[in-house]
Write a structure and sequence with these properties.
Number of strands: 25
Number of helices: 5
Structural class: alpha+beta
Largest sheet: 7 strands, antiparallel
Radius of gyration: 36 Å
Strand order of the largest sheet: 15-14-18-3-13-17-16
Strand content: 35-45%
Helix content: 10-25%
Shape: elongated
């Protein structure tokens, strides 16, 4: 006696699915559930029948289709970056050799406000230490000013000469204070002004840098910007733009700007000559798991929606290039439908053909039904013993 078993992977619990016709009489001992399903429902070819236990195990959920407003959408590519003011670039305040304050400093490391992240040492340079030079010039200018003050009292130097000497002293003092700021025993400290995370390390430990060389970028990651690249020939479609949804590369999760306190901050009215794209910019709160610099699929949402049949993206699966959905025809029985799709807003997709209002479409447990439907291609039970 041969029996047809559905793979355990379909439900993860070794659940067998009844997905075959019953034109002939079955004589399998112990196949009570199968017989009950056949008695309760008049099955059609390719129909998938699950009992209550199987439906609960697969967590099958359905949605009754209704006409609803579907906003005009424009799918484009985009990228995510830190908002203006949320980043700080730390630079070397003198020329020298960079030494990071921690051997564990790496991209993504947390940084405290006021923390020393690196030290730039000029001790090994052939030229004199700039701090020592500034100190020597300051002390010489100070001694010269004190001497001029005593000579001024005796009218040995004129008021004009004294003013010039004092001016040189003030310049030397300011230069020394600037040179000695953040000075440590090991060299000039590179200090983070704000708390955040290391976005990128721009130099290597032990590398020589000139004064003003960027050492690292620290981002607070409180606000992010979503930059959508719109083809110039479709820029007119953004006139009624109100919001957007996006899916970062490498994930299936779709984010909504409405849920992230997002707002439109820039929509170009003109495009640079020769450019094929214009950038539309949104700003939003960082929910904590979005990495600046990531590329994303973006759906721009505009006013002026129309009524349409639309289902959640999770309701649609693909079989050999054909888009399909599953409809509950009666409790516990499901039918595979090929569908023709239209626009998507990142969460729902328009169905142009294959479904109608009132259909109960499966929105959760689709994978289980898709695997079960594939079993219908296997020949019916054999009665050869």
């Amino acid at each position: 006696m041969k029996k047809l078993f559905i793979p355990l992977a379909i439900l993860g619990l070794g659940i067998g699915l009844c997905a075959c016709g019953h034109g002939g009489e079955a004589h399998h001992d112990g196949d009570e559930n199968h017989g009950k399903a056949a008695d309760e429902h008049d099955e059609h070819d390719g129909e998938i029948v699950l009992n209550d236990h199987q439906r609960r195990a697969a967590d099958i959920q359905t949605l009754t289709l209704r006409l609803s407003v579907f906003n005009a959408t424009l799918p484009v590519a985009g990228r995510i970056r830190s908002a203006v003011g949320d980043e700080q670039t730390l630079t070397a305040l003198q020329s020298g050799i960079v030494r990071f304050a921690s051997v564990n400093l790496a991209e993504g490391a947390a940084i405290r406000a006021g923390q020393t992240v690196a030290v730039v040492s000029a001790d090994a340079l052939p030229e004199a230490n700039p701090v020592a030079v500034a100190k020597a010039e300051y002390e010489a200018a100070k001694a010269e000013m004190e001497r001029a003050e005593s000579l001024l009292a005796d009218r040995i130097v004129s008021e004009k000469e004294y003013v010039q000497v004092r001016l040189q002293f003030e310049k030397a003092r300011l230069a020394y204070e600037a040179a000695s700021r953040h000075q440590t025993a090991g060299g000039k400290a590179v200090v983070a002004q704000k708390a955040g995370f290391v976005k990128s390390l721009l130099v290597k430990d032990g590398q020589y840098v000139d004064v003003g060389t960027p050492v690292m970028v620290v981002t607070a990651c409180r606000r992010l910007q979503l930059c959508a690249d719109v083809p110039v020939d479709r820029l007119a479609e953004t006139v009624g733009l109100k919001s957007a949804r996006f899916r970062p590369a490498g994930t299936e999760r779709v984010y909504s700007l409405e849920a992230m306190n997002g707002r439109l901050v820039g929509r170009p009215s003109s495009v640079a000559e020769g450019s094929a794209y214009a950038t539309v910019t949104f700003e939003m709160d960082n929910v904590g798991d979005i990495v600046p610099g990531t590329f994303a699929d973006v759906w721009l949402l505009s006013d002026g929606g129309t009524e349409a049949l639309a289902v959640p993206l999770a309701a649609i699966s693909e079989e050999a290039g054909v888009k399909v959905a599953f409809v509950e025809t009666h409790p516990g029985a499901y039918e595979r439908r090929e569908v023709v799709l239209g626009r998507s807003d990142g969460e729902r997709i328009e169905v142009k053909n294959g479904l109608k209002a009132g259909d109960k479409v499966v929105v959760k447990g689709v994978t289980t039904l898709r695997l079960a439907a594939q079993q219908t291609a296997i020949p019916a039970h054999s009665h050869n013993h």
